[in-house]
Structure formats: structure tokens, C-alpha cells
Write a structure and sequence with these properties.
Alkaline Phosphatase, subunit A, 271 residues, eight-stranded mixed β-sheet, alpha/beta, globular, 14 helices
Amino acid sequence: MKIFECSTIDIAPTISRLLKIPMVPSSGRPIPEVENYATEKGCKKAVIIVVDSLGYSLYRHFSPVMRNLTEFAEKGLLFKCKSQANITSPAIASIFTGYLPEEHKIYSTADIYSERAKDSENPKLKSIMEWAYKAGMKASVVIESEGAGSFRGRIKDFYGVPDSEDILDYDRQITEYSLLAIKEKPDILALHLRALDRFSHRAESWKEMKQAAKAVDENLGEIFQNVEKGTIFFICGDHAVHGGKKWLKDAGEEERENHKQNFVALIAGCI
């Protein structure tokens, strides 16, 4: 299977090109391999799924147990994708906007509100979902409640899930709300699954981490089964897994280098 390379800031401009969503040109650039693939498949809608902590090496490690995602990747495109931040908020902001953290300046959820208070129309703060909504398209977001609230007045359909100690239940709720959103036939949907990240901080063994990987994969499989034909997915880690010393103690040189370079997995594929 051929492995391509890109950056997380390339996702938003790629979707902009594919779905013909007008947006101010960002720092990222459309990914030609995805453009060619999506054009051939006739993709007309898009889903972004951020899988927290899905580093490239972690994906390779768990690919045997994440069968839904692995089979999806085998039919689509797999990228070793450079993440622009090693914590969640700025990393996801770069995925959604196409800008580097030093450009969008979102380093925490609170920053979204404070930066918009300074300039509510700053194009570097606008997600691809907002650009789509502004163009008259249907956009949906399913994320943690505080982050979801930042979309109030900026898109119509957003769903927030309160943070929870039971992260498997939290991801399950994210998935259920995503399935509700899919029934409304959005042109673009974005959601964030967090179990791998939470387990990486708290788990002590690969067995526990495998439990999280399987749960994420089951949620992905259900989403795959419910979208309309002609939908392209961008399934992407936000940053390499935290707790590197714990999880990389038996890793090879290539895995360590991938982690050091903050490469994440990006799987692009069309249903």
C-alpha cells in the first residue's frame, strides 16, 4: 500500500476545493492525491473525524484490531500527516481552519471565544464548516460542549457532549449525535472521538489501549454504515500519542522518529 505525506493544515483547503466551498486561501494546500481520488469516485459530501492521539505509528500498531478503519484505508488513501501541534486545541483548530497555530492563535477552547471577541470575522478563525454554512451549505459539528458552543450563531447544526470520566460513553454519545446529524444530510460534518487520548494518559498496558482502539473502531464502523453514498471521509489524528516514554519503550527507530516528528495518520476514503 502506497503511503503519502501531507500536513493537517491541508485538509480544510482540500475539502474547499472538492466541495467548491469559497474560503480565503489558507496556509495549507489542497492534497492532489485526494483531489484525484475524490474526483474519480464522485464525492460530493465530506466528513472530518478527528481521532484524538491517532499518531501514525499508533495507527500502524493497532491496525490489526481496528478492522473497520484498516479496511477503509485499504480502499482509500493513507497519509503520514504532519501535525502542527502536540496538544488537542491548536491541533484541531489547524485541521478545521487550514492555518498554523501561530496564525489562528487557538491554544485552548477559551481562546476561540477571546480571539473572536477581538475580530469576529478573522478568516484565520473560521472553520471549513463555517465557510460551507456561509456559502449556503448544510454543516454539522459534534464535539465537546464548550467547543460546540463556539459555533453558536456561526452554523445552524451543532451538538455538544459534556466531558465525562467515562470516555467510552462520551465517544458513544458523540457517535449517536453524529448519526442524528447524518440523518439531516449535511454537506459537511465534523466530529471528535477522544477515547484513545484519555486511555493513553491513564492506561498502563497495551491491553487497555487496545480496548480504546476497538471502541473507536466500532464507532467508526457504525458511522461508515450510515452515510450517503458519495461521501468522502478525512479520518485524522490531531497529534501523536501522549505518554511517549511509556508507549515507545519497546518501539523501533522508525516509530520513535514518527513520534518525534509528530506524524499522525490521515485516512481519506469515499463511501
